Amino acid sequence: MARVIPLGGLGEIGLNAMVFEVGGERLLVDAGLMFPGPEAPGVEILVPDFSYLGEGPPLRALVLTHAHEDHIGAVPSLLRQQPVPVYGTRLTLGLLAERLEELGLEASLHELVPGERLRIGDAVELEAFRVTHSLPDSVGLVLHTPAGVLVHTGDFKLDDAPLDGRPTDLRRLAELGDRGVLCLLSDSTNAEVEGETPPERTVAATFERLLPSIPGRVLVAMFSSQLHRVQHLVDLCHRLGRRVVVTGRSMLRNVEVARRLGILRIPEGLLVEPEASDSLPAARVCILTPGAQGEPMSALAQMLQPETPGLRVRAGDTVLLSSRTIPGNERAVSGLINALVAAGARVVHAGIEPLIHVSGHAARAQQQRMLELVRPHAFVPIHGELRQLAAHLEVARMAGVAADQRLLLHDGDVLDLTSGHGRLSGTVRAGRVAQGRAGGGEVDPDALADRRRLGQGGVVAAALALGKDGRTFVGPPRLSGRGLTRDENQVLLDSAEEVLAQLEALSPALRADDALLRDEVIRVVRGIFRERTGRRPLVLPLLLKL
Ligand SMILES: [Zn+2]
Question: What is the pTM of this model?
Answer without folding.
Answer: 0.89
